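Key result, reporting period 2: structure in, sequence out.
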């Protein structure tokens, strides 16, 4: 990304608080998540991304989570 990365904001939300997650997702076009374990902390984030039409990428998703995401 080079110098373009300097203008990228980092926004943090509490994945145990759905309102916090919703506020983050509403103000973004893409969410990059590194939270784990996914089934405990990632589910609210994916839910919000689906509801608000936000792209989602996860660097730590486990194979057990793929069924959840596909449904």
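The corresponding designed sequence is given below.
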């Amino acid at each position: 990304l080079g110098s373009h990365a300097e203008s990228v904001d980092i926004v943090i939300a509490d994945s145990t608080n759905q309102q916090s997650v919703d506020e983050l997702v509403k103000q973004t076009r893409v969410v990059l998540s590194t939270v784990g374990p996914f089934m405990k902390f990632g589910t609210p984030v994916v839910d919000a991304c689906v509801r608000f039409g936000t792209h989602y990428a996860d660097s730590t998703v486990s194979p057990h989570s793929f069924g959840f995401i596909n449904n």
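The chain has a mean pLDDT of 82. The CA atoms of residues 17 and 44 lie 8 Å apart. This case is discussed further under Risks and Mitigation.
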